[in-house]
Write a structure and sequence with these properties.
Elements (H helix, E strand, L loop, with lengths): L1 E7 L15 H16 L6 E4 L3 H14 L5 E3 L8 H8 L13 H21 L10 H18 L4 E6 L1 H12 L3 H10 L5 E6 L4 E8 L16
Parallel strand pairs: 1-4, 2-3, 2-4
Antiparallel strand pairs: 1-5, 5-6
Helix pairs in contact: 1-2, 3-4, 4-7, 5-6, 6-7
Amino acid sequence: MGTLYLVRHGQASFGAEDYDQLSERGRQQSVQLGRYWAARGVVFDAVITGTLRRHEQTWAGIAEGAGLDTSAQPWPGLNEYDSEAVIRAIYPHELAKPRHAAEAPELFRQHFRLLRDGLAQWMAGTVSPRGMPSYEAFVQGVTSALDHVRTHHVDRKVLIVSSGGPIATAVGHVLGLSPERTIDLNMRIRNSAVTEFQFSAKRHTLLTYNALPHLDGPDFADWITYA
């Protein structure tokens, strides 16, 4: 049996003009995950990443922490959906920005309420967010990576670095979940969290989901982030 680790990128830059960039905390999370694996002798036979900067930067941090020089294979099918396009498909207005800190939590909640609704409609085929594939094509991009791992890396350790949407989609596919339950998984996945599959040439089996073993301890209590 092989082992496939799927890692969500470290904390990105939510609320900034360019989200697709790790924050300093995101870089620290990634390096710490690499250190955690190095201390346990985990070495990967293959690494596959989405092509977004936050994916590449997360792998760079893991490699730095673990002292690895493995090259990563880019896989565009592991890229995240465009959350702004999803929201605009159902709410074609400018989202309000907080004028002061007290407004931020409610506007944050509004963002994710709209995102959840937009995702449900995209999955159902009710809306077609601009510049995005159909949901069926998005799923195919994710499952093509899983099929590649099963076909080419049996009995090996493989790392995938991606985003919350593709990872939740992979888990939903393996478990046969409904789109609604897949959205639930997506909304709860944490930055730099590890999801683990065992796999054979025929199937993947879920072992763990959304785990943060590298941040287990009081020293890392404020390192746990979601966006």
